[in-house]
Structure formats: C-alpha cells, structure tokens
Amino acid sequence: MNPSTWTGKQQLERGVAAAAMVLVIVWPATGFSSYWTHAILIETFFFGIAAASLILLSAYGGMVSLGQTALAGIAGVIIGNLATKGGPGGTSKGLHLGWDPTLALVLAIVLTTAIGLIGGAVAARSAGIYFLMITLTYSVIANLTLGSVTKISGFSGIGDVNRYTPGWIGNILAHPNRLYYVALVTAVGVYALIRYVVRTPFGIALQGIRDEPVRMASLGYNVPLHRTLAFGFCAFIASLSGILYVWWSGQVAPGNVDLPQTINLLVMAVIGGLVRIEGAWIGAFAFTVMNTYITPNTHVPLLGFGGTLFGGSFNTIIGIIFLTIVLVSPDGLLGIWGRLFQSGQLSRWTRGTPGAEPAG
Amino acid sequence: MRRITLRSWKTVALVVVAATGLAVWTTGSLAASRANVVKVAIMTDCKGAFAFGYDLDIGGAQAAFAQYAGGKAKNKNKPSAGMTGIHVGGTQVKIVGYGCGNDTVPLAVSETKRLMEQLKADVMVGPLSGDEAVYVANYAKSHPTKTFIIGTAGSQDPTMQIAPKNMFRYHGDGAQWNAGAGAIAYNVLGWRKAAIIEDDYSFGWTSAAGFIADFCASGGQIVKRVFPPLNTTDYAPFVRQLPAPSQVDGVFSTVGGTGTAAFIKAYEQAFGKIDPKKYLGNLFSSFLGADKVVGPKLVGSYVGGFGTAAGLKTPQADAYRKKLLAIYPKLPTDDGFVYNYYNAAWGLVQGLTKSHGALGAKLDAAMPRSIKPGFQVSSGGVLKLDSRRQAIQDQYQLQLVKNPDGSVGPIVVAFVPNVDQSFGGLFKPTDPPPGRTQPPCVKAKTPWQGKIHVVKNGKITSQILK
Question: Which CATH number characterizes residue B94's domain?
C-alpha cells in the first residue's frame, strides 16, 4: 500500500475512490436531494453488496451464480417473519413472531449462510452452464416456495419490517440517514472483507481452482469443499444485502426473488464488470439511476422510429445498454476504464506507464 | 512507479468538483418546491393482469378533479395525457405523476417511493390492486405526514388489520362487494355445499371471504378451497382439485385478471359446459373485458358485485354519469375502476376544501366522513366511513344476460343496503386477514339478511329476495 509504488492508473483510481468515498460520506449533509440519499444511493449500496457476492464467485471462483438474489430474499423473509408483530395496527402477513430484532438479524444471517452452504454443497461438483442452471433453480425454488407457503409469505409478502430494527440502530423511519450510513458501512466492510479473503490461502486456492481445478485436486486441494465454502461465504454477503433491502423497502415478497429480479442482479454485475469487485457498486449505481429516470413516459430521441418500436420502456433501454456493453466491453464499465489506460488515452493525465495490472 | 504528483491530485479535485456539479445539477430541479401547491400522485397499474385499468383509473380520478376543482383534460379520449389547472379554493393541485404497477408488491414499492419521495407527492390516490394496497397501508403508517386514498384495491387488511390513520377508502373491500352473493347462492340457487377457487393473494382471499361469510351465514358449507397463484396460465391442475359438478351444488370463483378466461377454459375441458346455475363468479366474471370471452360462456349465471350498479336508474346515478361523460366521453361510467377512483379524488377535493389546502394531520382530519357517490341509495344517498375510515357502502349483485344486440353484460338483480366491512362483527381487526383458511365457515347473522331487495330493470323494488 505504499503510494510511491502505485502506477498512474492506481493513483487515479485510488484518487477517484477516495473522492467518491468523501462524497458519499458527506452527501446526506449536503441536503441536495433526499431521494438520492434515501433511495438511489442506499439501493446502490445494498444491490452492490449482492452483486459483489456474484462477482466474487465469478471472478475468483469461476462460478456464475444466479442464486444470490434468492439468498438475499431468504434473509429478508427470515427477518420479516421473526421480527414483525401482528395484531391490530401490526403486520398482517407472515408468522409475525415479534422476536427481538437483533436476534432476528443474527438468525437471518446464520440461517441464510447455512442454506448457502447446503446449496453450495449440492452445486459444487458442477461448473459452467450446469452451475448456472443449478443456481437458477435455487431462485425458482425460492420464488415458488415463498409464493405457495402463505404461512411464511404468500405472494403478498411481509410488510412493515422496517419498523423492527435493532435498538442499536434505532428508528430508521424517523432517521433515514442512519440506514444510509449502516448500508454504507456494510458495503465498505463487505468490500474490505472480500479484498482480505481473496488474499488469504483460501482465496488463493480458490483462484487456483478457478483456473485449474484438476491440477488443484491432484495437488491435494478439496475442490468441492472450497467451492462450497465460497458459496456459503457469498450467501453470508447476500444475506446482508437482503436485510438492508427489507429495512429500506419495509417489505419482502416472492416478487423480490423472481426471474426478472435475478436477471437484474446479473445485469448490474455485468454492467459493472464481472472481473473486479468494485464493479458491483458501479454497476448497481448505473442500473439504479437508469431504473429511476427511465420511466414508461421517457421517449428516447431517434429510437422511436416514428412509432412505439422503442417506446422508451426501461427494459428496452437497459437491454440496448446491456447488449452494447457485452459486445463492446465484456468486462463492463471497468473493462472500458481499463482499456482506456491500455490504449494510453488516460495515461498522459497521470503521466504513468500504460499497462494493466492484476485484478483487484 | 512514481510518487503521487500534484497533478494527479488536481485530477482528483477535478473529479470531485465535476461529481458535485453533476449532483447539484441532477438534484437541483428535484429540490425546488413551490409553496401552496398540493402534489397528488395517482397510483395505478400499467403492466400485468390489470394494465387495462390504467386509463380507467386515471380518468375516474381526473374526472372528479375536473368536475369539482376546475381541472382541464389535455385529451378527452386519453386521460393519461394529463390534466392541468386544478384548484381547490386558492390552492393549486398538481398531479405530479402516475404510478405504473403490475399488481405485485416489489413494483408497488419502487413506484410508491418514486411518487412519494422522488416526485414528493403529498397525497396518493391509489393503488389499484389488493397486495399493493397492503404494502401502501404499511407505507402510510410509516409516513404519517402524507395522505393515502385507496383507488380501487379490495384487500381487507389496509383498513381492518393495518388501518393507518392517514388512509381512507371510499368504496367497499372485496368481501363487501360480494355481500349478498352467498345469500343468492343459498336462497335463489339452492346451494348447500359449494367449492371455491381463489386467487392466492390478498384480493382473491378477501373476495372469497365475502362469499364464504355470506353463504355460510345462511347455512351453506364450503367443502373445498383451491388456490391457484396469481398469473397462472394453465389452470388444469387446480380445476382437477375441485370436486366434480355432480358432487357439489356449485363453484364460486375469484380467479381474476387474465386468468378468468384460462380458468373457464380449463374448467370446461375437465367437466364440460358450465351450468350457469352451478357457477358464481366474483366481479372478474362480468367486468374487465370479461364480456368478450368469459361472458358468453356464463350467460344466466349470477356474479358478485363491484360496488357499482350497471343500469341503475336513480337521479343520483344519472347525475354522476352525466358529469363523468362531460369530461371523458368514452369512459365506462358504471365500471368499478372508474367509479372508485372518481370517488377517491372527489373525497380528496372535499378534504382539501375543508382544510384550506393544509396537509398532513389537518387534511386527515378534514377528509369527509361521508360523501354522496352515484350509486349510493341508502341513508338518503349518503355513504359513511366507519371508525377505520372504510366505506359502509350499498352493494349490488349481478346476473350475466344476453343483450338484444347479442353482447353479454351484467344487470343488477339485487340491492344490499349499507354493507359494513366487518359484516356485522364477523370480521375483526384482531382476527387474521382473509387467507387460505380464513374466514372459517360459520352460520351467523349478517345485518342484511332478509333486507336484500330485488332489482328489476334498473329499479330497486320493495320485493325482498328469498
């Protein structure tokens, strides 16, 4: 971490990161837009956490998982059932057991991680498209189970969850900035934790398994175990995202873990770039901003073709952007950034040596 | 490998300034707020099973704003084109946005946040669908400075179990709409044992609850309850769970939206042509485009109501129709979507008039506890709200008939006066909301037993339905 050894690209990136950190830390105090504070940025933080779990599995484990949305949703459903209270004026769905919110929080994380470990163990011996399909199945199972078992959710889902936050966090409805900072600190913590884990012997072995599973197995590494643990670890990360989501939105329903939502998370990860953890939050931010400002009434000039062919729906526009990114830069926005350096276009800004360095 | 240079920090500073500038630019327009403007959002669906309700809902609400608050429609044939010039007293009312839900909760979350937080609406007129209203009720509880007037959602929870103080509903819930349908099944059709197929969500359950409570109150029994998920396309597995027509006296269905036609098709494939005397649907069998595909297969069958009375001939109803058509000539006046949103917006205009444009708790206190909507007849045509701000509303039960021109549509056959949400105490805030096992089937006394009037040719007769 000695700045004197940083390349020009690293200098610029760390400068931008530091500036972005300062900006998001002081943002609520600026009072520019409470909607940006309490919706767009908080969404960026928690969707970014879920996308980070997806990118971690993909970039360091070689496993593209479509199960992260389901795992986040499961954590939300657990906390919704355990923490909310029923009766007149309370929530009207779910088990509403009314347990201590801190206990519910811990149980949601532990149970989701346990479910992740089980799911990981089942999927660990497959790879590539098969792994993708198995994890997609997890999302479908979660969606249909929550919809069908009305005792714990039903299609209505569980509402009112944001009134039952732990005492040490306090009332996030009266003080929404608290949720902002909780989400921010969690996101930074998750980022730091991932950076740490990928440099541990476990993380290095995982990258070895990503590149050469057979060779790693012959060296004595237990490949399925490493994959299972990685999946479990990412379930833990996804659970944090799910909990922040229910505190933010107040509810969780099967619709949160359906196919479109599952794909949305993948789209965020791909937009950001599936190779670097930072891409998670960049992708989540880009997606959330587009999702907010492209409404059915948005009509993009030149794309209408005089009719409603591209009537400006969010799905059309995000689809075009997604296609463009996949075709132009398979490594997402961060890939474009990296390539600008490789081509030397940004290097002169920092007077550094052009060239790539290892991911992360 | 070089040291950090001054120039790179200049770059950082440049980026920070640019980001700050961008943020100010993006948010500056949002932060601007004008005094003395009441911001209203109309929340409805533009996707999913009820997407067709989009212009009906917006049209209903805006017709009331035009009629009572001077609004000018931008396009008489397309309500969603917008409305300007709404004033209540000296207060300008601005419609800041239309919500675009798809009857699921996650989209209701993002749309509600967009309308109430990004566009900073003070009042919501909406939403359309049952689960959405459950979410919005929870949202209302945590946003006490804003006011919510349900558009046409029929789940029970928002004004029974959740019942936030800043939420109002000037129409019946799904159970109220079906008050009297069970009595018709028991008394007119002679059913004693019925099966029921319910959409597996808040509105399906509430709608079924009204039939179950009414039918069982008369002495009937429910022998089977089946729950297809919302947006099911193949109903065969669910139809097969129903007892054959020979084993029960009839089937009651709350399968709705785009599912109604698919369900009827699957039912006919399993059990043959439907006997209209052994089938009773809720509003989905007669409203919402059901006249084209579903209607012809169900001619003669009775149908649960929607709080509206197609073809009712009273001066109050005629006046309502005339006012509405003057604003939007193509809107179906007797449609529940239009009628319910109209009354919601009308209630808001009355509340703002009384509060002199004040919002929050003052508006909540000023919201009318009684209004005179078109199809209300009891109590001198006055509809009252109960203590949980839920309408006590006249209900009308229907029958599908073939019109002289060959089309199929509902006519009103029964009038059920002043139906309250609790069904005379059968539903309570302390009970769970309607669900797969709720309510149980119990013989009881409803306030309207023996008071249901026969309606003939649009006129309420003194004849009691037996």
Answer: 3.40.50.2300
Q: How big is the A-B interface in CB pairs under 8 Å?
A: 163
What is the 3 state secondary structure string of chain B?
CCCCCHHHHHHHHHHHHHHHHHHHHHHHHHHCCCCCEEEEEEEEECCHHHCCHHHHHHHHHHHHHHHHHCCEECCCCCHHHCEECEEECCEEEEEEEEEEECCCHHHHHHHHHHHHHHCCCCEEECCCCHHHHHHHHHHHHCCCCCEEECCCCCCCHHHCCCCCCCEEECCCCHHHHCCCHHHHHHHHCCCCEEEEECCCCHHHHHHHHHHHHHHHHHCCEEEEEECCCCCCCCCHHHHCCCCCCCCCCEEEECCCCCHHHHHHHHHHHHHCCCCHHHEEECHHHCCCCHHHHCHHHCCCCEECCCCCCCCCCCHHHHHHHHHHHHHCCCCCCCCHHHHHHHHHHHHHHHHHHHHCCCCCHHHHHHCCCEECCCCCCHHHHCEEECCCCEEEEEEEEEEEEECCCCCEEEEEEEEEEEECCCCCCCCCCCCCCCCCCCCCCCCCCCCCCCCCEEEECCEEEEEECC
Pair (B125, B195) in one structural domain: no
Within-domain flag for B428: yes
State how far residue A162 is from chain B, nearest Cα, in angstroms. Answer: 9
Based on the fold, state whether residues B355 and B398 are members of the same structural domain: no
A34/chain B closest Cα distance in angstroms: 8
Q: Mark whether B356 and B219 lie in a shared domain.
A: no
Based on the structure, what is the number of domains in chain B? 2
Closest CB to A160: pick one of B30, B107, B138: B138
ipTM for the whole complex:
0.85
Q: What percent of chain B has pLDDT over 70?
A: 92
- 10-residue mean pLDDT profile of chain A (360 residues): values are 74 90 92 89 97 97 96 97 89 91 97 98 93 96 92 90 92 91 97 97 97 96 97 98 96 93 94 93 94 68 49 69 84 86 66 44
Contact A250 B142 (CB under 8 A): yes
Mean pLDDT (chain B) is 90
Domains in chain A (CATH in brackets) are 31-293 (1.10.3470)
Pair (B104, B234) in one structural domain: no
Expressed as residue numbers, the domain containing B64 is: 37-172+312-392
